[in-house]
Every structure is written in C-alpha cells, then in structure tokens.
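I am still getting used to backbone structure tokens and would like to learn alongside you. Please make up or recall a protein chain and show it to me in full. Would you write everything just below, so we can both look at the same thing?
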Amino acid sequence: MKKWSIIVCLLLIAAACAAMGWYWPLLPPHVPVHWNAAGDIDGYGPRAALLLLGPGLMLLMLLLGLLLPRISPRRFEISSFEATYSYLCVVTVALMGYVYALVLLDVVHGGVAMHRAVPAGVFILLILIGNPMGKVRRNFFMGIRTPWTLASEAVWYTTHRLAAKLMVASGLLGLVALWLGAPHWMLLSIALAWAPMAAGYSLLLYKRLPH
C-alpha cells in the first residue's frame, strides 16, 4: 500500500477511537449490534462490542490490505496496480467507519434510518470502487476472479472494463431506487445484479478466444 493510504486509514481508525471515547459514558451496558433488512434491531451485545465493530474491523481491513501484497504469487502481484489497490483499501476502511458512525449515532441519539442509510453507503461504495475497476490487474484477491479471467489477461481486462460501468450504473440506479422508496429486496437485487452479468460476460469472452 502507498504511504498516503496507510496514513489515511490510520487517521480514520483514530477518529473512530476518538468517537468511541467521546460517546462511551453515554452508551448503555447493552447496545444494538445488528439490524435486519427492515431496519429493526434484532441483536444486542455489550458496549465493548462496538470497539470490535468499529475500530477493530477497520484495523483488520488495514492489516489485511498490508498483508495481501506480501503473499501474492508471482505473475499475479498487486504491486502492478498499487495506487488503485491503495485507493480501494482506503474506500473499504472508510465504509466501515461510515457504518460505525451510523451505529454510534443511532445508539446515542436514535432515529437513524439504518434500512436506508446502510444501503446508501453500499451504493456509494459501488460507485467509488467501480470507477477505477478497469485499472485492476490479474490477482487472486481483488476483482472479478472467475476461472476465465484468471486464465486470460485479455478476458480479465475486458471483463473489468465492463464491470466498472456495471458497478457505477448499479450504484447510481440504487441511489435513485432508494430515493423513490424501493423495497429492500429490490435494493439488494440492484446491488448484486452486476456480479453475475460480469461473470457471465467473462465466460462468453473466454469461449470466443482461439484455443
């Protein structure tokens, strides 16, 4: 990972820890830790669990981001697109921080529409991740890793160019659907629709290659 991305991730984690320290005296002994698709609380835990849900999970994503380049096999090294990889790691950690902020606000102040706020974050993530997806090169940890993309550099490249457009389109369409009050099953379908389309496209491309 680039040095700037590590610094940004650490700052995000530090901000999450500071928020936890600020709100700690206001937290009840047992806090919500899970919401269903309708936005209703269906799971509680000790307030210390919020440390794992927020700073802990964000730190885990950072450590994973630092580890993967070191264990990548030759010919599939992440270093070939290090800047894009670093950006994607930062966006992922930021999403964890966003969800954590929603949880803290809902626990302390209440009134957070989790069934709308969380999907909004997911759709924004699709847009932010999809935009540079065409720059991701073949690797075993990130991207559209079907047997056909891993077997062919050309299939990988073309599939990811399409996936980038599909992910951004899904994100934008999802935000519109969310604004219009679409049910959660429709939001989930929009968020996931791009994946089977990209996977199927990679198979079609591979079948057209001369063997």
Observations:
- The chain has a mean pLDDT of 88.
- Residues 3-208 form one domain.
